[in-house]
Amino acid sequence: MKMLNLGLGLIALCLILLSGCSSAPPSPAPQIIRLTCQGLTPCQLPPASPANNGDLLDQLTQTEAAWANCAAQVDSLITCQQRHQNGRDNGKAKTNP
Q: Which InterPro entries does UniProt cross-reference here (predicted)?
């Protein structure tokens, strides 16, 4: 009797342990996220048709502001690209804008 109970206990233990070895569904592949810099939009200057010196001065102010905006976009892109390049050279990606 004791041998029968011991045999059943070992079989039950083996079956319980083997149930933990069942094949699980494969885990999903990791998604690759590529960090990129913001794209540039074409720089546009406001149309001009000044009629007098006051209009010409206003047009100059608007044109300078448009060029400053365009230069800021280009500077931002260059800074982002340099940050990514430095991160790549150091073996890690930089994510701060």
A: LysC (IPR047737), LysC-like (IPR058979)
